[in-house]
């Protein structure tokens, strides 16, 4: 499908980038990728580890996830709350809403036979929600820290695009192959580009959501009342290819190098974080490394005074970026494996 999103001046004033990952975006997209057999070099190891761990409830849920089609609206993302909170929100959705959304999606998608009993069978609904929770536990939970880190890095990239080129550059560069800005229309192609759908936010704006598992095209979510959502690949193909996607995030204590011996492990971790997540705030550095904001601020001050990072104020935020000296230090021959 091709979405043509008609943006007014009010919409453009309300375009924003999600502050944190949206769990249902990543969970439903990861479920699709688990069923697909594309991009083996990037995702096959993750698939091989994940599939044997799935419970019977998780496999049941997976059977209703289409490779490219739509899911019932009650599974649409609603916010950037924690994964556990988002799963509980879905669990609390009334059965009438479930029945109505399943009926609507069955007009265009072929659903498994068991979904016909989902709204009226309390035991089946419990198994259904347990299945989604188990899918999250297997597909995303072990990797939630790197997923969060990548989203933060992508957000910094979009901030720089906005500061240098405004909303026009932000929209034009989010995913140029699949998302094209043709003022005043944002045109989004999906893999199934057989029909055209015109969407009018009418002042609701647009929420851009980077997703690690959205590896190629963009996707659109719109319930007609809240802000429409456009997802796109986090940082592009190069970032996905180099991401330690399916390994635990490394803590500062795990660093070992001559640079760490010189600066100390935590300070080296701060320098690496600022280099990887250019434009990070002190609070974001603290969250990424799981240290206190006071500690992050102290290390950033020392690194700045040594000429390894620089800071710039944007509103009430201080944004940190590495200097050429800092990058050269991290890239020194003794540092490289």
Commentary on this structure:
With 337 residues, the protein is of the alpha/beta class. Helices cover 46% and strands 15% of the residues. It has a four-stranded mixed beta sheet. A hairpin with a 2-residue loop joins strand 3 (179-182) and strand 4 (185-189). Helix 12 (282-289) crosses helix 13. The longest helix has 30 residues, at 144-173. The model is unreliable at 236-244 and 248-256 (pLDDT under 50).
Gist?
By secondary structure, this protein is α/β, with parallel strands linked by helices.
State the order of secondary-structure elements, H for helix, E for strand.
EHEHHHHHHHEEEEEEHHHEHHEEH
Strand fraction = 5-15%
Number of helices: 14
Count of individual beta strands: 11
Outline the low-pLDDT stretches. 236-244, 248-256
The shape is: globular
Helix content: 40-55%
Rg over C-alpha atoms, rounded to the nearest angstrom: 22 Å
User: For the residues shown, what is the average pLDDT?
Assistant: 85
Main sheet record: 4 strands, mixed
Query: What is the end-to-end distance?
Result: 45 Å
How does the helix and strand content classify structurally? Answer: alpha/beta
Strand order of the largest sheet: 3-4-1-5
